[in-house]
Amino acid sequence: MSDRFYPAAYTKTIPQGEVCWQAPSNIALIKYWGKKEIQIPRNPSLSFTLTACATRTSVGFSLRTDHSSDYSIDFYFEGEKKEDFLPKINTFLKRAQPYLPFLSTYHFEIRSENTFPHSSGIASSASSMAALAICFVDIERQLLGLPEEALDHTKASFIARLGSGSACRSVQGKIVEWGVHEETNGSSDLYGIDWEEEAHEIFKTYHDTILLIDQGEKQVSSTVGHGLMEDHTYAERRFSQAHEHLSQLQEALRSGDLESFTTLVELEALTLHAMMLTSNPSFILMKPNTLKVIRRLQHFRETSGLHPCFTLDAGANVHILYPDSEREEVYQFIKNELVGYCENGGYICDMVGNGAKKINASASKTLVK
Ligand code: PMV
């Protein structure tokens, strides 16, 4: 199955060069929670690709002369050299090596920075792994002597998945599905597929205002969280429920049915948290203000007749999703009634976007020190 991602023989020798890409974060509507090795999901998921929350990564590469280690990497995060990120990058490169054989033959200088504050409680693994993966696939494109437009986005998603599962949904398309789902042609456990074309127009300009309820470090790492699903009492039922929810959500996404959309998206968010509440050990990731925001939002929806709904990641922050046609009223409501529950009044205005984009390397110099 993954044979498709082994490259043809490289036709070019490139002594050195640089590529730079920006990849966005994504917010899952159907949640991925539980996996088999390596980042094979136990159930299919579907997400909105975001715009504002993104990682910009440049990769400088030069042929190695010293082969004393498997890989040769200098990694800088927001301008500062970070040795502690190297083990994670090394693991990622090892997994990607069979599909990107040039990785062991070059020295890499990787410079990465996020467009959102480091301490916002927003996980950056999806955007950072997607940006890095697409940089590597772009370098390989050059070694194969292929033009820019031949860049293999599916391979970039496949490689991103090896770094962090949800990263495979951050490469291309506004709405991305990942994981085998009987009713979706072309769905795969190995990479994300663009689901945008099938969706009603209303979802292509959806807003996501992220309320930063708790800006601290994540209480449960994804690795631990996925692991907790292994012998979870409700795991098998949850995995089949995700298939059912995905079929129902696809229906709502096609028809533009905002009532069903709301019901399913909120149910998925609460189910993710229910899984953590009922695992052993268990985790309570919502904060009192998370619940207050949810209650207020649901009350506003009932009284206004508008359609904002919430979703949650594996943390206390609340994503408020709403259509562009309702942006003024919903944004006013958020500012007047919800921002007070955020830590230091912090929130991020984001919306559905197209996926990763290439930054020309000289422009990247002004940003990446
Ligand atoms: O990609 P990971 O291993 O960090 O897992 C992400 C899991 C959730 O964000 C909680 C849900 C999802 O589907 O993105």
What do these coordinates show?
Helices cover 34% and strands 22% of the residues. The chain has 369 residues and is an alpha+beta fold. The protein has one domain: Ribosomal Protein S5, domain 2 (2-Layer Sandwich). The strands form 3 sheets. Strands 1, 4, 5, 6, 7, 8, 9 and 14 form an 8-stranded mixed β-sheet that branches. Strands 11-12-10-13 form a 4-stranded antiparallel β-sheet. The protein has a two-stranded antiparallel sheet with strand order 2-3. The site of (3R)-3-hydroxy-3-methyl-5-(phosphonooxy)pentanoic acid has 14 residues, from helix 2.
Ligands (ions, cofactors included) = (3R)-3-hydroxy-3-methyl-5-(phosphonooxy)pentanoic acid
User: How far do the termini sit from each other?
Assistant: 40 Å
CATH architecture: 2-Layer Sandwich
Query: What is the rounded Rg?
Result: 21 Å
| Unreliable runs | none
Q: For the report, how would you describe the main beta sheet?
A: 8 strands, mixed
- Relative helix content: 25-40%
What number of structural domains do the residues give?
Answer: 1
The tally of helices reads 9
Order of SSEs: EEEEEEHEHHEEEHHHHEEHEEH
CATH-derived topology:
Ribosomal Protein S5, domain 2
Mean pLDDT: 95
Summary keywords:
9 helices, 14 strands, eight-stranded mixed β-sheet, alpha+beta, 369 residues, 22% strand, 34% helix, binds (3R)-3-hydroxy-3-methyl-5-(phosphonooxy)pentanoic acid, Ribosomal Protein S5, domain 2, four-stranded antiparallel β-sheet
